[in-house]
Amino acid sequence: MKHLLLLVFALLAPNIIRGEIEEIVAKAGDEVLLSCPVNTPECGDFHSLKWYRDSSRMYVYSPAAKFSNAEGVLMDRCLDISQRSLGADCARGYLEVTDTNADLKITPIEITDEGEYRCEITYLDVSNNCPVVHFTNLRTVAAPEYVSMSISSNPDEDISGQVVGPYSSGSSVAFSCESGGGKPAPSVSWRFGEEDLEGETTVDENILNGDITVTSVVVVDLEREHSGAYLYCSVINEVLDEPLETQVQVDVNVAVKSVFIEEETTGQEDTEMVISCSAVGGRPLPVISWHMPEGVEFETEEESEILEDETFKLISKLTFTPTKEENEK
Length: 329
Hints:
Blueprint: H1 2-12, E1 22-27, E2 32-34, H2 40-43, E3 46-53, E4 56-62, E5 67-70, E6 93-97, E7 102-106, E8 115-123, E9 133-141, E10 146-151, E11 163-168, E12 172-180, E13 187-192, E14 195-197, E15 200-205, E16 212-221, E17 230-236, E18 244-253, E19 258-261, E20 273-282, E21 298-306, E22 312-320
């Protein structure tokens, strides 16, 4: 009796062949066609066919009952009053049936459509031992929608494209870079001037809509050579051909490196003379003040330039007419 039961079970067991499962990669808004071979010329007609995503039923089709309906999330737009203009076209799932296939078309694809899809076929004649279950993996991808930068202590303020600071030389500042909408989660990289930095990255996924938000935090130690340097944050995933990037310019206050007066300071009585004082290497622009004996009339003229390290050089020229009373003062 035991052998007889095993034989009956073997005859009734469905022919499920997984083999190498096809993977389809699609972006939000795309149209995909998930294949389900039915092969009626060899296997005969079928009573019904069902499509599932993981454990959720998505479509039911019965040629005998003349029944063909999308279900579950493929009908979400039909229940959304803002989509009522779609009318009978509100469903996102359609079945394309031929003698050899009953393929499920999904359009437009949504990010949350990802999963393992399978079609289950119920043939009228099960003696042909035809495959009755077919699998397809659908993987959804999306390019990051944005990238923004903020100071970690004030994450709600987007500072992208701005000049931040000034900060004191020797101080440390934590910057945050956020990117959303990308799937899979994009990788984040930092660059400060010509130096690559390593940030600490976290990934959050909204379980309701599948939205992914990536946040990376980097701490920058600021020195005088960083004044005016640009801090870049770049994100990229498999959908992007080029990274999505944002940047800020960091303003660092640094002390003046040197102050000097030109060596030649000899003048003649009652003859106009010019004395120059230079302050080099400071940021922001230094201030030069002159102190003259009481009653001496004078004028000053300044000119400045930005050096290669983004600090300033300021030259102040003092013009006056000396008398013997100012000698050696």
